[in-house]
Amino acid sequence: MKTKISSVLCFVLVVFGFIARAQRSQAGYQKVAYKTIRVDGLDVFYREAGNPDKPALLLLHGFPSSSFMYRDLINDLSANYHLIAPDYPGFGLSSQPPVSAFDYSFDHLAAVMEDFISRINLKHFSLYMQDYGGPIGFRIAAKHPGWISALIIQNANAYQEGLGNGFKKIMAMEDAGDKAGVENILKSIISFEGIKVQYTGGANNPAHIDPDAYLMDYQFIKGEENEPIQNALFQNYHINLTKYPDWQQYLRQHQPPTLVVWGKNDPIFIAPGGLAYQKDLKNAEVHLLNGGHFALVEYHAEIAAYIRSFLREKGIR
């Protein structure tokens, strides 16, 4: 009897040991690595987590943010996926060459991110885009449709229906060549209060908005050296609207599996912009969240659950 009990006990200990090792292995993959790689003569900072053998997600951040905006989502998903979140040149911890030495346009940022993807040897990935991540990501996806496993779109616009009234006013000023007027608006937007309201405006519960989000954005973007960078990109933004037909054609032609998770109270890119993807995508899954422009801060756990469910349904696991 003692021998039998000992055998069972040994078996149980072996099983628990195996589970413990698996859990430790998985926990190891959940750790975030903070890396910098040389791309086109620039230092590109990026966050990376998860098992490289798992499906990859490339996370492209918005304005005036950085890869920091994805910190919670990375933790939510790193047990299931391989996550990479870079900072664009001029943002976060990546190089910030002066406007006299670098063309700060969306075409150029997309080209640098395209080269970044090649440098880290990323072959196939789901592409998460928010705000500025939209015009950068859509340029890459339309040029390299074979790279894209799926799209995850959060308040990243590709339709006229998604432009809020304030945003339309700024675009009209750009089209009219009112550079001084646009620059003055930008100064207000990248002030501390201007950045804060982008996070708290439209939030379901402002008390759930982590102040670290807007405090970090402000620290990265403030100062005389960074303001000309943001101004150059802001003045270039209206070019993106001329690309909308190209991006819509890409969606119609290639029908990438697409999940839309949209803060419906966003005054910049309004809710009809999220719903508009259903015009060109036969099977787009759309969720309108009771949040604002940076809904991810308030709803990262819910968005992570949507992503897991969506990608599992599409066979991306």
TrEMBL record:
The keyword Magnesium is assigned to this record: no
Protein EC: 3.8.1.5
Single Gene Ontology MF annotation: epoxide hydrolase activity
Keywords recorded for this protein, A-Z: Hydrolase
Lineage: superkingdom: Bacteria
Protein name: Haloalkane dehalogenase
Origin species: Mucilaginibacter gotjawali
